[in-house]
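User: Hey, quick favor. My workstation is busy. Could you predict this chain's structure for me?
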Amino acid sequence: MQFDVEEGSDVNNRMTRRATVATATIVCASLALLGTPAVAAIPVDTAPMTEAVTQDGLKEHLQALQSIADANGGNRAAGTPGYEASLAYVKEKMEKAGFKTTVQPFHYEQTFYDGSELAQTAPPAEPFVLNEDFTPMSYSVGGDITDPVTVVDVNLTGDRASTSGCEPEDFAEFTAGTIALIQRGTCDFRVKAVNAEAAGATAVIIFNQGNVNPDDDRFGLLNGTLGSAGVTIPVVGTTFEVGSAAAVTDSLEMRVNVVATVVPTDTWNLIADLPGGRTDRTVLAGAHLDSVHEGPGINDNGTGTAALLEIAEEMHELGLAPRNHVRFAFWGGEEDGLLGSQFYVDQLTKTETKQIAVNLNFDMLGSINPVTFIYDGDGDAFGATGPNGSDIIEGVFEDYFTSQEQPFEATEFDGRSDYFAFINAGIPAGGLFSGAEGIKSESQAELFGGSAGKPYDPCYHAACDTITNVDLAGFEQMTDAAAHAILTFAETTSAVNGTAKGKANGQVNWQYKGHQALK
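Assistant: No problem, here it is.
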């Protein structure tokens, strides 16, 4: 998972809907329980499948991905030998499980910011550390700027709520030819940067908001994105500590040196089809295969990859032949902007698009301080709905966890993973998520266990996202739910009420989405 572009998208800041867990255990779940006439009432007994999924089987795949990263510079990022080896491993396993595989190549350009610098040049001189104190925003251009700093409408008191830089009026007294110092809050980073550029800023420094909760992620390093190219001045994000100190320093001058190196990248998706079944009701389950460059990506997203591999192997062992076509997809370039899944959807014909009944997305299933999140397909928790049929997917997961007497919460369709291209194409989508950099609340800790005030995944996008960064028990529970949903939709006798043209209700077609908050 990657960067996000919407204010308030952090998991801990979201309003969550908590379903009441039933006391009775339901062995056989049915789509008919969802109360929709679009799906026939056919009970699907998935117990043999969920019983076949084991922690040992999942761990075997996680260890293989860890070993691949260890042998290839510590990561499995797209365009690297580690990714290529990961794809070869998955391809071999899927073919042994009876799936026909297709390698889908695509090309894009990555931008690296190694060598970038941020420093206070006066008064006094103080350098800052790349990727600790500051980092260039994704899509920032390069440039080496040393200029005085103008502070733009910041708020360092109370809850520090801020609209800094969101309106052109914030720059009414801005001194052209200076660096704009802006606080996070309310609007997209791109809006802030565009307004600063229009006012004559030579560079932009956006610092984290800060607020009353010191455990919130609005104090640490702000790692954001501009969403797309077009801003022509360098833009960096920094911590609340660095930014708030700069905001009260008189006669401040700073150097912003963004070194942007563009690297052409060739990588691949792996598409795996189980022979047979109705192709006009294809169930497409996906997980991204790549890691970030900073680490091996075993939770993000070795867990989604391992879950699909384990499910495929157990389907093969059980000799399952579902009535509907089943396709598993392992996406490349997710961490660089959901690129592999978007490329795949862009290649679909209108007929092929309509043939995909549902897209099930599995990204980060084993966080060590987890919450069981289900994507809010019907929009009743966050307002942004998926295409028609996404509510059915949400209901299948809800019914399953209820049958297991396991609590769950909704998480919004905010475009932070590979389902995004599908919902924009009108394809019903849903899935599971155990949490990323967001902070677990007190109420979540009471319901799900774990530590309040701490991240769901403390090693998110870091070198420590190793095999020790996975809660295997929770991961197995999530994989059981994934297996249940895949088989349930694979056995339905009528089409899901979806696959309409156009975007999902309540969605905006942002160009770049992902894990890190961008407002």
